[in-house]
Each structure stands twice: as structure tokens, then as C-alpha cells.
Amino acid sequence: MRTCRASAAGKFTVVLATIVVLAGCGGGPSPRAWAASVCGALTPWRSEINKLTSSTDEQMTAQTTPAQAKENLVRLFDGAEQASEAARRKVEKAGIPEAENGEAISAGFRDSLGKMRDAYGRARDTIDGLGTGEPTVFYDGVRAAVATLNKEYDASALDTSKLNSEELKQAFDEVPECR
Predict the structure, then answer these.
(1) Element (H or E) spanning 152, and its range?
(2) pLDDT by residue (tens digit) across 158-168?
(3) Residue-wise over 5-15: b if at least 16 C-beta within 10 A, else e?
(4) What does DSSP assign to residue 98?
(5) Closest of 59, 47, 51 to residue 146, by C-alpha
(6) How far apart are CA 120 and CA 99, in angstroms?
């Protein structure tokens, strides 16, 4: 009897494993579901980046000491780095859409957010490494770090003209989360 039970348990395990594997092969989310997830990830990220950008602009013109400006800018860029990583993880969690070039398009979004995250991290590290003893030198260094950040940020932008999926283009146009 024990052999029968073990054999039945083994068969059940094989059947369960097969179901899990087949369910995983059933494909990713629909274009509309994927677009909604991606826009749901990018909307708060965009808001956070806009808020941080405004705060950075304020820091560049505020009457603060270089040490205060450094502390604030490091915190702001750290926040932008974290927000970019959170958005990247959410896009990753959205999966691969069931659409033409879905895997490449998903990878493009994730790669773009990863490059933006890294650009913010480098800007944070650069500013964190600046000395604050000479205000002119400090602010010149900040301007250089921000200029580099802007170049890296622009270079990391996703080229949406290469979204070679009519299904996804339509989904991004139609889902409420993307408006």
C-alpha cells in the first residue's frame, strides 16, 4: 500500500508541475493590461521626478550654504534614483506583454528606467563628493553634475517610435491609466 501512495503522490506532483509549467507558458498579460500596469508605474514616477526637478531648481537658486545645498541635492537625487528603481521594478513585475516584440519593448522600458536610475545615482555620488569650502567651486561642480545628468537622462530616454507593436500603441492610447 505504501508503494501505491508514493506512486500516486509522485504522479500528482508530476501533474501539478506540468500544470504550473503550462500555465507559465500561457503567455503574458494582454497589451491593454500591460500598458495599464506600465502607465500605473510611470505616472507616480513622473510626478516624483517633476517634484524633485523643481526642488533641485529651487536648491540651485536658494540662499543656502554649500553644505546645506549639498545635503539637499544628495537627498533629492537619491530620491530620484529610488523612484526610478521602484518604477523599473513595477514595469518588470508587469511581465512581458502578449504582443509583437513584447519582450524587446518590455526590456526597452526596463533598460531606460535602469539607465535613468543610474544617472541619478552618479549625480548624487558626484555631488556627495564635492567639497563645500569654496562656494564657487562647489556650485560649478553641481552645475557640471547636473549637465552630465541631463545628457545621460536624455540619452536613456526610450525611443517610443520603435514600439513596433500596433497592439501596444493602441493600448497605450486607450487605457485610462495612460491618459
Answers:
(1) helix 135-156
(2) 876 766 788 99
(3) eeeeeeeeeee
(4) S
(5) 59
(6) 31
* For range 112-135, the mean pLDDT: 96
95 Cβ neighbours under 8 A, 6+ residues apart? 28, 29, 34, 37, 106
What's the Cα-to-Cα distance from 18 to each of 7, 21, 27, 49, 75, rounded to whole Å? Answer: 16, 5, 15, 44, 49
Q: What is the pLDDT of residue 21?
A: 33
Amino acid at position 173, single letter? D
First-to-last alpha carbon distance for the chain, in angstroms, is 63
> Using one digit for the tens of pLDDT, what is the confidence trace for 24-78?
345 799 999 999 999 999 999 999 889 888 887 777 777 789 999 999 999 999 9
**Chain-centroid distance, C-alpha 73:** 20
List, for residues 73-96, the tens digit of each pLDDT value: 999 999 999 999 999 999 999 999
Alpha-carbon torsion angle 143, 148, 153, 155, nearest 10: 150
Q: Which three cell numbers stand for residue 170?
A: 493602441
Q: Residue 153 is placed in which grid cell?
A: 537622462
Beta strands in 50-103, from DSSP E residues, in sequence order = none
